[in-house]
Structures are given as C-alpha cells and as structure tokens.
Design goal:
Blueprint lengths: L2 E6 L3 H11 L4 E7 L6 H5 L6 H4 L2 H8 L4 E5 L9 H7 L2 E4 L5 E2 L13 E3 H8 L16 E5 L3 H11 L2 H4 L6 H9 L4 E6 L10 H8 L4 E6 L13 H11 L7 E7 L1 E6 L3 E6 L4 E5 L2 E4 L3 E2 L17 E2 L2 E2 L5 E3 L11 H19 L9 H8 L6 H18 L11 H4 L12
Parallel strand pairs: 1-2, 1-4, 2-3, 4-18, 6-14, 7-8, 7-14, 8-10, 9-10
Antiparallel strand pairs: 5-15, 11-12, 12-13, 16-17
Helix pairs in contact: 1-12, 5-13, 7-10
C-alpha cells in the first residue's frame, strides 16, 4: 500500500512540493485547490505583462500529469472536506495556502472606498481572480498614489501606466482593461517612507518601468532621503542617470517620492510628512497600498495571530500530528517563485523522512474513498478550460482570456467531469 500525501493549495509552493514528492513512485500526491483553476500566485499574482514568469506553469503541468498525482480543483478544505478528514485519510497533510489578505497603512482616510485598495486585491482583480472580479475602483482617476518600495509597488505603477495596446495583448481581465480605458491618469506618485538606499525593488524592475513609452520618471525627496551612503548600491547609478535625463512632455508623470509618510486622505488630496515633520501634499484620486500581505486562520489549524502564520517547527505544524506547512502560510514571507522550488526540496526531504517511519495501512480507507469521490474539477477538466482560454485569447488578440467562474458546479453545468459525483 502506498503512502498518500494531501497538499492544500496549488500555487508554486504546493506544486513544487508535489513535484519533489511525486518523483518517488511509492508516494501518491493529491493537490486540493479552492478554485477550479490551478497555479495560485502564478496565475493570479504575477503581473499580466510578465508572461515569461508565468511560463513556469508548463513545467508544473507536466507534474500534474504524472500517474501518482491528482488535482482536486474546486474543493475548499475546511468547507467541503475538513482538515480532520484529510488527516485520517492521508499519511501527511501539507498546508500551502499562501497569503490571503492585503495589508494597508493606518492613517486618517485609509479606509475611504473605493479610492483605497490594496495591491493584493488590485493585482488579483487585474488577473481575473474570481474573488476579485467585482473589485470596485474609483472613476475619473487622474492621479494615483502607491505606497510601498518593493517590486509589487512597481508592478502596480507600471500596470497603471502601461499603454492600453500592450495591456490588451496580455491575460489581464477585460474588466480592468475597460476600466483603464476610461481613466485619464496624468500622475502616479510612489510614496516611500525610507530613503533611496532602502528601496526594495530590483534594478531590473525599475529599468522596465523606465523604458515605458509615454512616462516622465523622476525622483524627489530631501537631500538626505536621496543620498546613498554605500555607493555600491546598484540603484545609485540608475537614479543618477535618471536625474540627468528627465523626460519632458510625457503623457504620465511618475514620481518616486522618498522619505515621506501619509497622515491623512480626504478622498482627493493626500497629506504627507517628510522626515523632518514638514507637511506637503499631492492630489490622489486613488490610493494603492502595496505594503505586503498576510495569512488568515485556516479552519481546524492552529494560528499565530501575532506573526500571522501557522505555528510550526521546521515546517511541522504545532499541535497537529502529521501536518506540515510550507510557503507563505508557514511564515516564509517575501518568497519569489524560484524560492518556492528550493523550499520544496527541503520540505520533501522532511516529509519523506517522516513517511519512512509510518505505516500507510493505518489510514482510514473508507474515509479516503469518500474524499476521493467528491465532485471536483480534475486536471483533464482544467486542460479543456486552458485550451478554451487560449482560443478566446487568440480571437481577442491576447495571449489568453481567463474564465472567471468560481464554482465548477456552476461553470461546468452539463459537462461530464473526470471523477465520480458525490452522493
């Protein structure tokens, strides 16, 4: 009898772990995903104009086709099946659920809607995530403020400035493209509390923004905020070149404002303070909070509210036998997709070591059959949808047009699913 491992979440952390574990033909791996569609962060968190990054799904698709791997799409663990059921049916259960909520800065006016949104929500809405398909954004937007100094903040700035003809060729949601087409954005200010030397975005990402047609890019802040104590910082040279070659007559004025923090927002005007406590202000019809994301409690699983993670020791969940966590949910913040691959190798070694000490016959076979019979979106169903999305994209002059239904029971009405219906 083989060992069976259930992985909850089919984003990069879960998929790379499935890859590492399923290379052992004596382990069956089942991926449980709340959405009908796989790939999590890759599908819904990577900017739509970064199709090269999304291409890793081709590698992961080969993993899903292995004989000892199954995909259970549209099955929300905690609702349609409990974590306790999985623990009684599988040798090990892995939680790879990722971040689920975007963070906001706290200041007067930060909750005015729809002008305030998080980058987490915005990027998922742009990518056509079913949970964010109806995200309400303001209209008549001429000026935008983006809080944050990382790559996600730069993504948001770039997507707001990206020429419409370029955006239309991507897999961005048609709803976002329509919204963009109705706005007349003239200024985007990226507000960072730290100085220029503490910027977290990569030089490559900044250069990508700098190359966009139609934008005038400049940096602002006090002399102290724009200084680089360590001249080896790769951004130092880039910013120096930028200050000497400011573009004129641009369609959109993009400002990187260092050394400032927000104190209040009226719905149209953002008040800021610099490092010396001096007040200034900028017009803002829309604010994007790109200051991180966090996890929330998972039903039936311990949760450390202070650190917003599943408490664990070397990945093994505290207080739950045979339960492991990997990726963002485990507290491994700021993970890039390649990092998930290296973490998966470590996690697979831990899990396989534990499996070598277990007897698979101790699992409940009748409950396993019940879990296996849940009506779900199988990998063959996804492949048909994948083909449909690519065909719709071809007709629209885009790389892909995403289907947005949340429930496979609704989306697949009348279709023959690749598994047994539940009783």
């Amino acid at each position: 009898m083989k060992h069976r491992v259930a992985i909850v979440g089919s984003g990069p952390a879960g998929f790379f772990l499935a890859d590492a574990l399923s290379k052992d033909g004596e382990i069956d791996v089942h991926l449980f995903e709340k959405l009908p569609y796989p790939f999590g962060l890759i599908r819904y968190g990577v900017a739509p104009d970064h199709q090269g990054t999304k291409a890793v799904t081709r590698v992961l698709s080969r993993v899903a086709k292995r004989a000892n791997v199954r995909f259970f799409g549209g099955v929300e663990v905690g609702k349609r099946v409990s974590i306790e059921d999985l623990l009684r049916s599988y040798s090990v259960v892995v939680l790879a659920t990722g971040a689920t909520v975007g963070r906001k800065l706290d200041f007067d006016g930060a909750n005015i809607r729809p002008q305030n949104t998080t980058a987490f929500d915005l990027v998922r809405s742009i990518n056509g995530h079913p949970d964010y398909a109806e995200l309400c954004l303001p209209n008549q937007v001429k000026s935008v403020a983006v809080f944050g100094g990382g790559n996600v903040a730069l993504d948001c700035v770039r997507l707001i400035c990206l020429p419409l003809q370029t955006l239309r060729t991507t897999d961005a949601s048609r709803a976002f493209i329509e919204w963009r087409s109705k706005q007349r954005v003239k200024q985007v200010v990226m507000v960072m509390r730290g100085d220029a030397s503490s910027a977290k975005f990569s030089p490559d990402m900044f250069s990508e923004l700098k190359r966009l047609d139609g934008i005038g890019l400049r940096i602002e802040g006090s002399p102290e905020a724009l200084s680089f104590p360590h001249k080896c910082n790769p951004l130092s040279e880039i910013f120096s070149i930028l200050s000497e070659s400011e573009r004129e007559n641009a369609d959109v004025d993009v400002v990187l404002l260092f050394g400032h923090k927000p104190v209040s927002f009226s719905g149209r005007h953002l008040r800021l303070l610099d490092g010396k406590g001096l007040a200034t202000g900028v017009g803002a019809d829309m604010i994007v909070h790109a200051v991180g994301q966090t996890s929330v409690p998972f039903p039936g699983v311990p949760f450390d509210a202070r650190d917003a993670k599943i408490p664990n020791r070397n990945g093994w969940v505290t207080g739950l036998d045979r339960c492991y966590t990997v990726g963002w949910a485990s507290g491994s913040a700021r993970l890039a997709i390649p990092d998930c691959r290296s973490l998966a190798r470590h996690a697979a070694s831990e899990i396989m070591g534990a499996l070598s000490q277990m007897e698979p016959s101790s699992m409940d076979p009748s409950l396993y059959e019940e879990v296996e019979s849940i009506r779900h979106f199988a990998w063959a169903d996804w492949e048909r949808y994948d083909s449909s999305e690519l065909e719709l994209g071809k007709r629209a002059g885009a790389c892909r047009v995403k289907l947005r239904s949340y429930s496979p029971c609704e989306e697949l009405e009348g279709m023959e699913l690749g598994n047994r219906p539940s009783n």
